[in-house]
Write a structure and sequence with these properties.
With about 260 residues, the chain is of the alpha/beta class. The chain has nine helices and 13 strands. The longest helix is centred in the middle third of the chain and has 16 residues, at about 100-115.
Length: about 260
């Protein structure tokens, strides 16, 4: 197997990680409740000891092996109880119509305020806007990067929700997978969909990988939602359902019954 070659970004990551590991106490602080994790005081901080959840652990989510055909060890940092929350998965293609962007933003805010935990990779522009919305709230959410999180630098904005116990950062990738690739992004999205209780696809381009993911989740029997738009009619045709603002209380009630 060809050995991965590091680019400048990976080299810089490793330099920062080495600095965090060996610099003095004036620059670092230990969180007394963190199971050995060490936090950067200012700026991005590094994950030092992620907890690895295996299939034999009671916290391991149901349905992963059934849907993906394998049991993947899950590295996690934050509130591990969120693994059992059956969160709502959020996906959106990179290119998203303007009318969908505005309505999706308002809908995700309503879902957040209703207390429904949301999980995503938060890679596309629309997804990133929704992550910023979740960071400003007080409700739980989960972030799943398309790479290993061991020794990964996390944004400083994530420290507060981690300390508050309302964020879980998780990954199905081992420590050697430090780079984000298209293949890992696709595998990450499948993992998110398998873990989630329900799925919201704000928009998926026709013939896109996101549309294929939508179909996969539907084939698993997952409730898959999308926004009313002529640009989403192809998703309705394969089994997705409209999610309207007035549906959010019922969605939240369903999540509360599940959990």
């Amino acid at each position: 197997m060809a050995k991965e070659r590091w680019g400048w970004a990976e080299i810089l990551d490793q330099l920062v990680i080495t600095f965090v590991q060996y610099c003095g106490a004036d620059y670092l602080e230990s969180n007394p409740e963190d199971s050995g994790q060490t936090w950067h005081k200012r700026g991005p901080f590094a994950v030092m000891n992620a907890t690895v959840i295996t299939a034999s652990d009671p916290l391991y989510p149901n349905g992963i092996e059934e849907r993906l055909g394998e049991t993947l060890p899950i590295a996690a940092v934050g509130n591990l109880d969120l693994l059992q929350s059956r969160p709502l998965a959020l996906f959106c293609s990179i290119k998203c119509p303007g009318d969908v962007i505005l309505r999706a933003y308002d809908l995700v805010r309503d879902i957040r305020d209703a207390g429904v935990p949301i999980i995503g990779g938060f890679h596309s522009p629309m997804e990133k806007e929704c992550l910023a919305l979740l960071l400003r709230g007080t409700e739980p959410f989960l972030v799943c990067p398309a790479r290993s999180i061991e020794k990964m630098r996390l944004p400083s904005a994530w420290k507060k929700p981690l300390d508050e116990g309302r964020l879980l950062v998780l990954s199905p990738f081992s420590q050697k997978h430090r780079r984000v690739t298209a293949d890992r992004s696709q595998r990450r999205n499948l993992f998110i969909a398998a873990l989630a209780g329900q799925v919201l696809v704000a928009h998926a381009g026709r013939g896109s990988k996101t549309e294929h993911l939508c179909g996969q989740a539907i084939s698993w029997g997952k409730p898959v939602w999308t926004l009313a738009s002529k640009d989403n009619e192809h998703l309705l045709a394969i089994g997705a359902r409209h999610l309207k603002p007035e549906d959010v209380p019922a969605l939240a009630g369903n999540w509360q019954r599940i959990t």
